[in-house]
Write a structure and sequence with these properties.
Length: about 170
C-alpha cells in the first residue's frame, strides 16, 4: 500500500513553524552521550536547539529532508556529530547554505582514536566547506555556533545578505 502524503497545509504549517536556532544531528543513538556537552552549553547560553538522530548512511533521505528545510524553519547553524566514516556533516552541508560544524566522535569501533572521523569530516571537496572541531569536541561546536549566531543577520537568501556564490 502506498504511503499517504502529508496534506499540503500541514507542509506549509511545518515551514511556518519557528525552529530552533541550532540544529544538532548525530549519526546514531550511540553518539548521544558524546554530543550532550553541546546541548548543555547551548542551554547555558539560552540558545534554542533541537537534536535529531539521522544517519547519512542508514537514512540518507531523512538527512536530505532535514538539511534542505532547516533554514526555512529559522535554524541558523547546524552541528553534526558522527563517528567512523563520518559522512553526516558533509552530506548535511551539501543540502544547505547554513554553516555546518562537524564533530568527529569516537565509538567502540573507531580506528586510530577517531582519526577516521576527523578525516571524513575535514577532507571535504572544494566548494562544500564544513568546520571541524576536535575529537569529541561537542562543547566547542556549541561555542562556535554561538559565535556565528552573534554575528547577526538572516539566513542565507535573505535580501541584502551575500549568497553562497558571493
Ligand atoms: C556512525 O557510526 C555513528 O555516528 C556512530 O558514531 C558510528 C557507530 O554507529 P552505531 O553502529 O553504534 O549505530 O555512523
Amino acid at each position: 500500500m502506498p504511503e499517504e502524503s502529508p496534506h499540503p497545509l500541514a507542509v506549509i504549517e511545518e515551514f511556518e513553524a519557528v525552529g530552533p536556532l541550532v540544529g544538532i544531528l548525530i549519526g546514531s543513538e550511540s553518539d548521544r552521550d558524546a554530543i550532550e556537552p553541546a546541548c548543555v552549553e547551548l542551554d547555558e547560553r539560552g540558545i534554542s536547539w533541537e537534536l535529531k538522530v539521522l544517519s547519512a548512511h542508514r537514512d540518507p533521505r531523512g538527512v536530505a529532508e532535514y538539511a534542505s528545510t532547516a533554514a526555512l524553519r529559522g535554524t541558523r547553524v547546524l552541528i553534526a556529530g558522527a563517528g567512523m566514516a563520518a559522512a553526516l556533516p558533509g552530506v548535511v552541508a551539501s543540502y544547505t547554505d547554513l554553516p555546518v560544524i562537524g564533530v568527529p566522535l569516537t565509538s567502540s569501533k573507531s580506528v586510530m582514536g577517531g582519526l577516521d572521523a576527523v578525516l571524513a569530516i575535514v577532507q571535504m571537496p572544494p566548494g562544500v566547506p564544513v568546520a571541524c572541531v576536535s575529537v569529541n569536541g561537542s562543547r566547542n561546536a556549541a561555542i562556535l555556533a554561538a559565535k556565528i549566531l552573534a554575528q547577526g543577520g538572516g539566513y542565507p537568501g535573505t535580501p541584502g545578505r551575500p549568497t553562497a556564490e558571493q
